[in-house]
Specification:
Number of helices: 1
Helix content: under 10%
Radius of gyration: 19 Å
Low-confidence stretches: none
Order of helices and strands: EEEEEEEEEEEEH
Largest sheet: 10 strands, antiparallel
Structural class: mainly beta
Length: 169
């Protein structure tokens, strides 16, 4: 059994289509912030889940991209930058394709314009810190995370709903 392989993708920024302009995208890592706890009468520590780590999305452009990149740079609003990744994964056994979409909102933290050289494509590397993230696979919401909204859903189950109720939010 072979895995479905990413055959192609595109990245959109603030509604602008960057088709053919983004050679690499580093998909945000899903990581929980854990602390160790060990109390009396325990044979060892356990990790206690303290929430999601800061998420970032890093991507490169194959040269100059202006539309949709600088518009939100330096904004005082935490979710001023909108990124939308669309991918097509395909099985080499059956030919079945699966669409994957990531919607992310945050701030462009760095725009590293790299080294300029005549005749070189001069890749730029952009790092965007995220306050909103949604992963949709084949039309199904898999993960949705809204940090200021205090929402974290996995396959439609809101894992913070009871906490929000406890806090009267």
């Amino acid at each position: 059994m072979l895995p479905k392989i990413l055959k192609d993708y595109n990245l959109f920024g603030d509604g602008h289509n960057w088709q053919g302009q983004v050679p690499t995208v580093t998909i945000p890592e899903l990581a929980r912030r854990m602390i160790e706890y060990e109390g009396g009468g325990m044979d060892g520590p356990v990790e206690v889940d303290m929430g999601q780590e800061l998420m970032t999305m890093t991507w490169t452009t194959g040269g100059l991209v202006v539309d949709g990149l600088f518009d939100s740079f330096g904004s005082p609003v935490h979710d001023a930058a909108l990124l939308r990744f669309t991918g097509s994964y395909e099985s080499d056994e059956t030919g079945e394709t699966v669409p994957v979409e990531i919607v992310a909102r945050g701030r462009h933290k760095t725009i590293a314009m790299g080294e300029a050289q005549k005749g070189d494509k001069s890749d730029w590397e952009i790092t965007t810190t995220l306050t909103y993230y949604k992963l949709v696979i084949d039309g199904e919401n898999v993960i949705e995370r809204d940090v200021p909204g205090y929402v974290f859903t996995v396959f439609g189950v809101d894992r913070l709903a009871q906490r929000r109720a406890n806090l009267n939010l």
